Amino acid sequence: MGFAARIARTRAAATFAMAARARALRDEGKRVISLAIGEPDLPTPDHVIEAALAAARAGETKYPPVGGTSALREAVARKFARDQGFRLSADEILIGNGGKQVIFDAVMAVIEPGDEVLIPAPCWAGYLQIVDFAGGIPNFLPCASSNGFQIDTAALDAAITARTRLLLLNFPNNPSGAVADRATLQDLATVLRRHPEVRIIADDIYEHLILDGEYLALASVAPDLSNRILTVSGVSKSYAMTGWRVGFCTGPQNWLHSMAIVQGTSTAGVSTISQAAATAALDGPQDVLVERRAIYRRRRDLVLSALAAIPSLACTQPQGAFYAFPSIAGLLGKTTAKGRLLKNDYDFAEALLEEALVATVPGSSFATPGHIRLSTAASDDALAVACSRIIDFCTTCR
Ligand SMILES: Cc1ncc(COP(=O)(O)O)c(C=O)c1O
Fold this sequence. Notes:
Layout: H1 5-8, H2 14-27, E1 33-34, H3 46-57, H4 70-83, E2 93-96, H5 98-110, E3 116-121, H6 125-134, E4 137-142, H7 153-159, E5 164-170, H8 182-193, E6 199-203, H9 218-221, E7 229-234, E8 247-250, H10 253-266, H11 272-283, H12 287-307, E9 323-324, H13 345-356, E10 358-359, E11 361-362, E12 372-375, H14 380-395
Parallel strand pairs: 1-10, 3-4, 3-5, 5-6, 6-7
Antiparallel strand pairs: 2-8, 7-8, 9-12, 11-12
């Protein structure tokens, strides 16, 4: 007895696989530093945890409305007014189990088998999983590191075909850290105006983790396109709430309505306790965002200056999020101190884990071979030790 074809065509996320390998080595007593998973090491703020406890004690323990509690949807509408400049009512918001479910709902709502989804690469591994699951055809648009991993808008225009139904944008980008400035967003909008059949998901989950430059929402730069842009964000990365599983979005009513059908079919909505916590995060003091941004900026600088000591590694400066995405092309074809031949980024990440006890993720998982991604969301001490291990590993390859 077999399983549905959608299971076979959907690959597991390499980030979770590498994190599991790192855990297994740790269980064997090895002192592994895991920079594999994209999750803040900092704690969820206390007032958020208190709000969750209070909600549980107050009896907020029943099924939630599928699209989110009105308290959280109102808080998200206020947040979108504050950060994106959108004027929304609560019924223009959908809450999902993390940004991941929101994107899943959105793709499942619009993609028919065989439809093309255009994805600038490097890109988050979750997009490929979701598009594969939906039966869509991912069409990756490579973005050059020499151009700071920015999208070449002429190439984007040329990559849109008669079958393209969706464009997945992500700034700040996981894994490259690229942020689109106003001029780039305007150029993107100009291209998209020529292709009225293409919907856009603007995945702005790292919106508060801008380390250089400023955050701008595509729908605020091009409001005339807002009838086909879904703006996605959430509390996971900004407020260190990955385990609470709360994401949200706004977009055209018909898209939100279709997404609610997907969500209502797969789950009865998001934990009421988590929604109370997310409401407190969004309505509470926002200085935590500024403080944490400074921490992530310091860590980015620490990692970049350490990696600069390795001549065979080239790293573009990430402008946002909490990753570094160096090219390891200069080391491919070489042999490690323990005799492993580095044919590709998988070999590199594997050897770095086995020999130097640092877990990273191969760039191929982000549709960009020849690179590795390391998360900088770890303590300064862990990052310093990891970097010195990476330096030793790379400089002893022959
Ligand atoms: C670009 C991007 N989008 C969406 C998500 C999903 O976030 P969440 O934890 O809220 O589901 C992630 C998580 O790593 C991400 O990197």
